[in-house]
Amino acid sequence: MRVSKAQAQANREHIVETASVMFRERGFDGVGVADLMAAAGFTHGGFYKHFGSKADLMAEASANSLAQSLASAEAMSVQDFIDVYVSRDHRDGRSTGCTMAALCGDAARQSGDLKSAFAEGIERLLHTFGEKYPTAPDAPAGEGRTRMIGLLARAVGAIMLSRACPDDSALADEILAACHAEMSASLPVSEAPEGATQDS
Length: 200
Hints:
Structural class: mainly alpha
Number of strands: 0
Order of helices and strands: HHHHHHHHH
Largest sheet: none
């Protein structure tokens, strides 16, 4: 039976959403097309009606999950971002967490299309939070973006290092706590939480 264009599009979106969860949980190489399609509720052969290759799906799924992460973060302040991102909940929620923390290491070994999807997602996040990053009125142009690049790198690195430790490891929590404290303290007093100190 032929499906309508609307149903075909809905099926494609469901496959992309399923893939974005599975890729974050298992990595790109840990998910086969057959397993992915079964998880989405479709046959293996149906994959190529929607995508030219697994690499095409990887790029689309990554762009989709990066866009979702940005949408959920747009209303946050920089401190809110630190609180949510550098947390045990995020560390343990790999399949629903940030695509950058889950897949940056994998993406570095993938195609230019996939890297472009990551670069666009990172750029959008930097644009959003670079404009929010609190700086002095006379700060040089682009200072907020520069500081946000450093903060984002520390946030992603904190999650990746913590996840590399056993789940019940004290070090996993120590990494998160230390990075959260240092990142919060690096913000100007107007943005940092009560009790945090500004770096000199």
